[in-house]
Amino acid sequence: MLPPSLLLDRMLENWIAEDLGRGDRTTAGILEGRDRIERARWIAKETGVIAGLPVAARVFQLLDRSARFTPLVVEGDAIVSGNSIAEIEGSLSALLMGERVALNLVMRLSGIAGATRRYADKIADLPAKLVDTRKTTPGLRILEKYASRVGGAINHRIGLDDAVMIKDNHIQAAGSVSEAVRRVRQTMPYPLTIEVETGNLAEVREALASGVEIIMLDNMDRETTREAVQIIRDFSKSTKIEASGNITLDTIRSVAETGVDYISTSAPITRSSWLDLSMKIGL
């Protein structure tokens, strides 16, 4: 979901201020104090999946309280080049000043949603679910994860406080999987869960013996992954299994076929391209 307006507006105000600086010299010079109500339309310049229109609407509303942003498609819709995406009515100055920030955000989020959709579609008929990661752009995490969800993924933890996730460096710091779990359990609040990243079958067995809720199989080959899944299923039917590491569009289906519950990858966010959109005034 999108953050509440109290948080979203704060972020947007900072981004608008970054672009405006000491003022939009071009708009101020052209209008010369003769502002007027105008209409604009957003048009897709390529095929993709749309995400972020509520964010764009808020950009224009912060610049002009009476601005009206009317989506012509629904979040998550597949669109093609030439599609009209939204119509905006408001002061011409607000349209010109908000154009770049609003478009940048929607193009970025739509790119993520489209890439995520391609990954999710690869395993849509299998039980495994696509999960995103914390590899996000600083300052944009909540919006990028929103776009990931629009595209069809399930959000992994938003931050370090959402759940306990013991990774390889944590294990190294503690000395072992079991010791890392023991230490964390002494301080973690109820009802957080514990996930452990494992790189081999010995660590899988140690994580199982420690009673963790989720076991991640990190960078394991398919044969080892299948063996690990069988070991976990024989020991506990309730323990969730996540696979991660070098997941691509070409490999995600074969990973899902090993029987894991979740597949996590940063690729739809870190490797996505922006969806090209444009704004035309007077249409």
From TrEMBL:
Role noted for this protein: Involved in the catabolism of quinolinic acid (QA).
Keyword Transferase: yes
EC number: 2.4.2.19
Record's subunit section: Hexamer formed by 3 homodimers.
Name of protein: Probable nicotinate-nucleotide pyrophosphorylase [carboxylating]
Catalytic activity: nicotinate beta-D-ribonucleotide + CO2 + diphosphate = quinolinate + 5-phospho-alpha-D-ribose 1-diphosphate + 2 H(+)
NCBIfam families, alphabetized: nadC
Domain Quinolinate phosphoribosyl transferase N-terminal: 33-110
GO biological process assignments: NAD+ biosynthetic process; quinolinate catabolic process
Pfam families: QRPTase_C, QRPTase_N
Enzyme class: transferase
Chain ranges of the Quinolinate phosphoribosyl transferase C-terminal domain: 112-280
Keywords noted in UniProt: Glycosyltransferase, Pyridine nucleotide biosynthesis, Transferase
Keyword Transferase: yes
A cellular-component GO term for this protein: cytoplasm
Domain of life (superkingdom): Bacteria
Similarity comment text for this entry: Belongs to the NadC/ModD family.
Known pathway: Cofactor biosynthesis; NAD(+) biosynthesis; nicotinate D-ribonucleotide from quinolinate: step 1/1
InterPro entries xrefs: Aldolase_TIM, NadC, NadC/ModD, Nicotinate_pribotase-like_C, Quinolinate_PRibosylTase_N_sf, Quinolinate_PRibosylTrfase_C, Quinolinate_PRibosylTrfase_N
Organism: Pannus brasiliensis CCIBt3594
Any one GO MF annotation of this record: nicotinate-nucleotide diphosphorylase (carboxylating) activity
